Amino acid sequence: FPLRSPVFDRSSDTLRFHIPPSGTKGTVKVCVVTPDDRCHGNSIITYSSQPSCTGIQPTVSWRSGGRKIDVQGSNMESVESVIVRPSNKELQTQYSRSSGDVWFHSPRYYGSGLLSLLLKVVNSTIDCGYLSYEPDPEFTFTTLQVAN
C-alpha cells in the first residue's frame, strides 16, 4: 500500500521530504501526489539492510596520521562517514565498488590509548572497533664509500 510523506521544504524546482521507514528490503517507486490524487514522476528508492562492520585493516596508525584504513563489512554503500572517539572528529569515507568496503585516512593523534571508530549511517552510528597509535617511524641512512 502507498505511504505518504509530507513535504517539509520546497523551492521553485525542489521538494524535500523524509523517506518513510520500511519493514522490508526492496525497491519502491516515489512520486509526487497532487491534491487531485494523481502521481507525478517516477523515481526509485532502494531499501537495504543496515551496514555491519566486520573489522578494520590495518588496526595501527602512526601519530601524524594519514594512513589509509580499510573498513570491512556488508552493506557499506550507505556509510556516510566515520566518527572517531573520544575526539568526536568526523572523517569522510570513500566507498570502493570493487571490494564493497569503505576507507578513510587516519587522523593525527598524540594522545594515549585507543581511538574508537563509529560508522555514521543517516541518524545512527555503528561500532566498528578500535585504532591504536604508534610513534611516527624514523629512518636512519648511512653511506659507504665503495670506490673512488
Q: What's the overall average pLDDT, rounded?
A: 89
Number of helices: 0
Structural class: mainly beta
Shape call: elongated
Supply Rg. Answer: 23 Å
Give your account of this protein's structure.
This protein has no helices and 13 strands. The protein has 148 residues and is mainly β. It starts with 6 loop residues before the first strand and ends in a 14-residue tail after the last strand.
What tags apply to this protein structure?
elongated, mainly beta, 148 residues, four-stranded antiparallel β-sheet
Set down the secondary structure blueprint.
Layout lengths: L6 E4 L4 E3 L8 E8 L5 E9 L4 E6 L2 E3 L5 E7 L6 E5 L3 E4 L1 E2 L6 E4 L9 E7 L2 E11 L14
Parallel strand pairs: 6-13
Antiparallel strand pairs: 1-2, 3-4, 5-7, 7-11, 8-9, 8-12, 10-11, 12-13
Quick gist of this model?
The chain has 148 residues and is mainly β. The chain has strands at 7-10, 15-17, 26-33, 39-47, 52-57, 60-62, 68-74, 81-85, 89-92, 94-95, 102-105, 115-121, 124-134.
